[in-house]
Design brief:
globular; 8-stranded mixed sheet; 15 strands; 486 residues; alpha/beta
C-alpha cells in the first residue's frame, strides 16, 4: 500500500517583520508574543536565512505561485499580470491529486482567481482588497475588494457582526496622503476581525478537505499586520508603546541614500511625530501579530481535533517585512533593507533542526511539489529545500541571495545581492549602495564610493553580474553597460 502523502498548510501573514516572531529570539527592539507559532518551531524547525525575492506583495506572492522571479513570471508590481506559459502552484498540486483551498488575501494576479490557478475552493479578497473598506463606517482607507460580494462583509452579517466599526484612526500629517490610517481600534469582538474571518475560512476548508479521500494543500492568507493594523481589544492595548526602543537606524539622515528614500519618508508624513509616533504604530502592529498568532492557534486546534495534525506539514511565513521605523520608513518600497527582505519561515511536520542556509520564498513552490511527489512542469528559478526541512544540519551550498524591485510608489528598477558580510544594491538611475554588514548591521553607512571598499565593491558587482546572466534578468543590459563607472 502506498504511503499516504502529507497534507500541506501554508499560512502567510502580510508584511511581518522577522523580529516579531518570538521563535527567532530577536527581542532587542520588540518582544512580541507569538506562542502558537513558537510552538510550531519547537515541534519542527525554522529557517534563519529565508529571503523574499521581492519585498512587494503581489510580486512576492506570484513568485510562490510560479517558482519564478518577478522579472520572469511578469508580476513585477501589484498591478501587472503574468506572462504566458507559466505554471501555477495551485494547478500543479491539483493535478498531483491534492484538494486545494485558498483563504484570505489574494493579491497574486489582477485578473486570475484562485480557481483559475487550480484551487478547488476559496473566498479570496481580490485586488488590493482591504475587506474592511466600505464596511467600517469611520474608516478612511478605501480599497475594498474587487470581487462582489465582499465575503468578509457577508460573513459579518451571518455571524452577528453587522455594524462593527473603527475608532482612534492614526494618520501621517502629509496633507496629500490623508487616505490611509496606520492603525485603528476595531470596535467589535475578536470574532468580528478580518483575521478571525480568515481563520474561520481555513477551518471550513479543512472540514471540506477532511471529507475527501485526498491529501490537501491549503493556503491561508492574513491581511495583517500590514497597515492599517485594525485590531480589537485586548490586542489594541496589549503592548505599551513606550516599551519599543528606538531602532538604531532611525537616526539615518538619508544623505548617502538614493533621493527616493528621503521622498518616501516624507510621503508617509510620520517624521514630525518622531520616534514616539512609531512607538504608537508599533504597539498596534505588535498587537496585530499576536492576534494572528492566536488565529494560528485556532487552526492548529482544528487540525488536532480532526486528527490531521500529525499528517500535515505547516509552513508559517510572510511575503515580506516592514521597516516599521527603521531608517524613519514604514512599510516597504524601493529600498533593500534587511527589515523587509529577511523573513520568518517556520516549518512543522518534517525535521526538528533549524537551518542556516540561504533559501528563497519562491522555492516553496518546488518544495511543496516535492512533498506531493511531483516536479514543476516548467522550469523554476531555485530548487526544492525539502531535504533541508527534513534535516536542518544540511547545507544547500548557497553563498548569497539576489533580490529585485521594479515598481511600487514609483518606478525605480533595483537589484540587491547580499551574503553574511556585505550587501550591494544597484539602483539603475541613482547612486549605488554597499553595506559592511559586520560593522554596520543596520545598513546606516553607505560605503559604495569609499575608496577603502573598492575591491569589495568590484567583487560584489561581479557576483551581481553572475546572477543577472544566470537569471536572464533584463536589468543586466543597463548594468553591464555602465558598471565600470557605477
Amino acid at each position: 500500500m502506498a504511503k499516504k502523502r502529507k497534507n500541506i498548510l501554508l499560512i502567510m501573514s502580510d508584511q511581518q517583520r522577522m523580529d516579531t516572531v518570538g521563535a527567532y529570539n530577536m527581542k532587542e527592539f520588540c518582544d512580541v508574543k507569538t506562542p502558537n507559532i513558537d510552538r510550531l518551531a519547537q515541534e519542527g524547525m525554522k529557517f534563519n536565512n529565508a529571503y523574499t525575492p521581492s519585498a512587494i506583495c503581489a510580486p512576492a506572492r506570484a513568485a510562490i505561485m510560479t517558482g519564478l522571479y518577478p522579472h520572469t513570471n511578469g508580476v513585477i508590481d501589484n498591478f501587472t499580470d503574468y506572462k504566458p506559459g507559466v505554471s501555477f502552484l495551485g494547478q500543479c498540486m491539483h493535478d498531483a491529486g491534492y484538494y486545494c483551498g485558498y483563504a484570505g488575501k489574494w493579491h497574486v494576479s489582477p485578473s486570475r482567481t484562485p480557481r483559475d490557478c487550480g484551487f478547488d475552493d476559496g473566498k479570496p479578497f481580490m485586488g488590493y482588497a482591504f475587506p474592511g473598506s466600505g464596511v467600517y463606517k469611520h474608516l478612511i482607507f478605501n480599497q475594498p475588494p474587487d470581487n462582489k460580494p465582499n465575503y468578509y462583509e457577508e460573513w459579518l452579517k451571518e455571524h452577528d457582526g453587522d455594524g462593527v466599526d473603527v475608532s482612534h484612526g492614526f494618520l501621517g500629517d502629509n496633507p496629500a496622503l490623508q487616505i490611509q490610517e496606520m492603525f485603528c481600534k476595531l470596535e467589535g469582538r475578536v470574532e468580528d476581525s478580518i483575521e478571525y474571518f480568515v481563520a474561520d475560512e481555513t477551518l471550513r476548508l479543512i472540514d471540506k478537505a477532511k471529507d475527501t479521500d485526498k491529501p490537501f494543500f491549503i493556503w491561508a492568507n492574513f491581511w495583517g499586520p500590514h497597515s492599517p493594523s485594525i485590531v480589537p481589544e485586548p490586542y489594541y492595548s496589549m503592548y505599551d508603546p513606550a516599551s519599543f526602543p528606538e531602532h538604531p537606524s532611525y537616526k539615518d539622515d538619508m544623505l548617502d541614500k538614493p533621493y527616493g528614500y528621503w521622498l518616501t519618508e516624507k510621503m508617509w508624513g510620520l517624521g514630525d511625530y518622531g520616534w514616539k509616533g512609531f512607538q504608537e504604530i508599533f504597539a498596534r502592529y505588535a498587537g496585530h501579530c499576536t492576534l494572528i498568532d492566536d488565529m494560528v492557534g485556532l487552526i492548529v486546534k482544528k487540525l488536532k481535533e480532526t486528527g490531521l495534525y500529525d499528517d500535515t506539514v505547516i509552513v508559517y511565513t510572510c511575503d515580506h517585512g516592514d521597516c516599521m521605523g527603521a531608517h524613519k520608513l514604514i512599510e516597504k518600497g524601493a529600498f533593500t533593507f534587511d527589515e523587509i527582505y529577511h523573513i520568518p519561515m517556520v516549518v512543522k511536520g518534517l525535521g526538528h533542526t533549524d537551518n542556516d542556509s540561504f533559501v528563497y520564498l519562491h522555492e516553496l513552490m518546488p518544495t511543496f511539489l516535492d512533498i506531493a511527489g511531483t516536479q514543476p512542469p516548467t522550469p523554476v528559478q531555485g530548487k526544492s529545500f525539502l531535504d533541508l526541512m527534513e534535516d536542518g544540519s544540511r547545507d544547500n551550498g548557497r553563498t548569497e541571495v539576489y533580490g529585485e524591485y521594479h515598481n511600487h510608489f514609483y518606478v525605480a528598477r533595483q537589484r540587491m545581492v547580499r551574503d553574511h558580510e556585505y550587501q550591494l544594491t544597484f539602483n539603475e538611475s541613482e547612486r549605488g549602495e554597499l553595506y559592511d554588514l559586520k560593522k554596520d548591521p543596520y545598513q546606516i553607512h553607505n560605503v559604495c564610493y569609499d575608496p577603502a571598499y573598492a575591491k569589495v565593491k568590484e567583487k560584489y558587482m561581479n557576483i551581481m553580474s553572475k546572477h543577472m546572466k544566470e537569471l536572464g534578468d533584463p536589468a543586466g543590459v543597463w548594468f553591464h553597460r555602465i558598471k565600470q563607472w557605477y
